[in-house]
């Protein structure tokens, strides 16, 4: 199950992920939240707080997320999870790879506030070329 969670910043879209992602989670929660944020912010950041991780299916919704239009606006993704999550990452290190140009960082369960703080850091301003 996937549900929205508050992050305290409009350009940071937060999700609490419990178990496996379903079609309804992807179409009914994840995509509408990202689309709404994309309309309001030129740069997005995503938080996934993962609890009770049971695994994932390769080439499923995570793969679709990587390739969906609008992901070019995302510059950071924070993944927060506990020991089970860390165990799965040993077997599936490519779960969050493939997000080209996106800084993806992993935080342990006790560091949710640190992850949100990192996502809320100011977006660097790139000077326009003359």
Provide a brief overview of the structure.
The protein has helices at 23-40, 61-67, 83-91, 112-120, and strands at 2-5, 12-18, 44-51, 74-81, 103-108. The chain has 130 residues and is of the alpha/beta class. The chain has one domain (2-120).
Notes on the structure:
This protein has 130 residues and is an alpha/beta fold. The protein has one domain (2-120). The chain has helices at 23-40, 61-67, 83-91, 112-120, and strands at 2-5, 12-18, 44-51, 74-81, 103-108. The chain has a five-stranded mixed β-sheet, with helices on both faces. Helix 3 links the parallel strand 4 (74-81) and strand 5. 23% of the residues are buried. The model has no long low-confidence stretch (mean pLDDT 81).
Order of helices and strands: EEHEHEHEH
State the shape.
globular
Main beta-sheet strand count, sense and barrel state: 5 strands, mixed
Question: Which structural class matches the secondary elements?
Answer: alpha/beta
* Share in β-strands: 25-35%
Helix content: 25-40%
Distance between the termini: 48 Å
Let me know the number of strands.
Answer: 5
The number of helical elements comes to 4
Give me the Rg, rounded: 14 Å
State the domain count: 1
Parts with pLDDT < 50 across at least 5 consecutive residues: none
Mean residue pLDDT: 81
Organism: Methanoculleus chikugoensis
Pfam family, one: SpoIIAA-like
InterPro entries: SpoIIAA-like (IPR021866), SpoIIAA-like_sf (IPR038396), STAS_dom_sf (IPR036513)
Protein name: STAS/SEC14 domain-containing protein
Features:
130 residues; alpha/beta; five-stranded mixed β-sheet; 5 strands
